[in-house]
Amino acid sequence: MTPAEESVTIAADQPAILTATYVESGAEGEGEGEGEDQTVMLPGDVALEMLYIPAGTFMMGRYPGEQDSYDWEDPQHQVTLTHGFSLGKYELTKRQWQAVMGTTPWSGQPFVLNDLDSPAVYVSWNDTQAFITAVNTYTGLTLRLPTEAEWEYACRAGTTTRFYWGDDPSYTQIGVYAWYQGNAWNAGEQYAHVVGLKLPNTWGLYDMSGNVWEWCEDWYGSYPSAAAIDPQGASTGTYRVLRGGWWLSTAIRGGRSTERDWGDPGGARGLAGFRVARSGSAR
Q1: How far apart are CA 136 and CA 144, in angstroms?
Q2: Which of 2-11, 18-27, 74-83 has the lowest mean pLDDT?
């Protein structure tokens, strides 16, 4: 992907969050504040649902001989995440963005669905930081973007195949799980779709493949060759990581679990959105 050509400036005097409520549903066998799904109520009673992702170890990057993969997904390496975290059940929506920021950066832009429950697009990586700062300032929470390792771990949901629904060598199942070129652009639906319409992965996360590329916290850089514990990505860089593919991806680039891309952190275009994360769980 080439660096974005357009950007959106978020003004310093954005409307503040007026109220926020934090709701939890516990999971048996977990300690207090751990293993709990979460719902943050944004202004206007707009819900932001987050799922708890347990700590664990996985193999990050493409496996040897992975079909239709790329060398920048090498080397495959072991990653251990020592702490559980929470991740947005869905890509952040226009409704949620507007509730917090009071802006509509996608307005008047091409290839945008006029539905508040579709992903917030035309937001840059820098814009995601403005959103996160606003939420954290007025709710007292510590939301953030997921690291690239957290994103892939959550996307895989315990799988080791190309996609979280299997290797799908002939791409016969991709349309059941993801919005991509074949069922979006080619079907005359040339936009990111309402979230949650396709099947989720086994951890209950929707649209991890396709719909919109998702910003991650990391600078884009090469993977380490050795095992890593709680990796944070490159210490500096030019571009930020994007994961998951988008609605104009071909089947070959339709959002494999290892697929990665990069974007100018100041660039805002219709292909990218994001979902929020939080270290640990509740309290």
Answers
A1: 9
A2: 2-11
Kindly report, residue by residue over 17-69, the tens digit of the pLDDT.
Answer: 333 334 444 433 333 345 789 999 899 899 999 999 999 999 999 999 999 99
Give residue 157's domain range.
Answer: 21-279
Burial class (CB in 10 A: 0-12, 13-18, 19+), 167: middle
Helices (H) and strands (E) counted in the chain, each on its own, are 4, 13
- Give the DSSP H or E segment for 47: strand 46-53
Q: Is residue 34 part of a domain?
A: yes
272: nearest Cα among 245, 236, 239, 253? 245
Residue 207: inside a domain:
yes
Q: How far apart are CA 156 and CA 56, in angstroms?
A: 12
| Contact residues for 152 (Cβ-Cβ < 8 A; gap 6+) | 58, 60, 243, 257, 258
* CB-based contacts of 65, cutoff 8 Å, min separation 6: none
Residue 34: CATH number of its domain: 3.90.1580.10
In angstroms, the CA 70 to CA 19 distance is 45
In a domain, 16, yes or no: no
Q: How many CB atoms lie within 10 A of CB 34?
A: 18
- pTM for this predicted structure: 0.89
| Domain tally, the chain | 1
Sign of CA dihedral 8, 10, 15, 21: positive
- Whether residue 6 is contained in a domain is answered as no
- State yes or no: pLDDT of 13 exceeds 60: no
